[in-house]
Amino acid sequence: GSIREVVGAQSYLIEGDLSARQVETLAAELLVDRVVEQFVVRRLPDQGPAPRPGRQLNVLLKPGVTDNVAATALPALQDRGYPVTAVRSCQKYWIDAGCEGAELSRFCARVIANDAIQVVIEGPLTLSSLSVGSQYHFTLVTVPIRGMSDDELVRLSREGQLYLQLAEMQAIR
Fold this sequence. Notes:
Blueprint lengths: L5 E11 L3 H12 L23 E7 L6 H12 L4 E12 L5 H12 L5 E5 L27 H10 L6 H7 L1
Antiparallel strand pairs: 1-3, 2-3, 2-4
């Protein structure tokens, strides 16, 4: 194949009103094992020169998928007094520049990402915010299910995307 070299790294995307010194400190003290790992701090959107040669791939979890790494890091950073508002984890990969497009696509789909839960972004990240999706506003809807006929129960199941059988809807009623 055309892929000769792959280099990977764990990345944290952190949003908040942090000074450069705070970012350096939290990276050094909390996010890396300095015995075996190194860290580099970069500000997004990333406009600087590439940190490594080759094609850069960023693997992020899709909206709605729980990011356990971020869910652990965020309160840990906040508990230590850092003004962090959001954290996302990201796996970064650099593939040698000579790899071919079709092989790169297969590599992404079969090796570094699960299309059901992850998205691959090629090139430097240009995110300006870590927010994903849109704000959700809960609205309470009361459905008078006790007084519904069987036909109304079937329609409610279908239109409400419940996909329950009539017997199940009757049991709920």
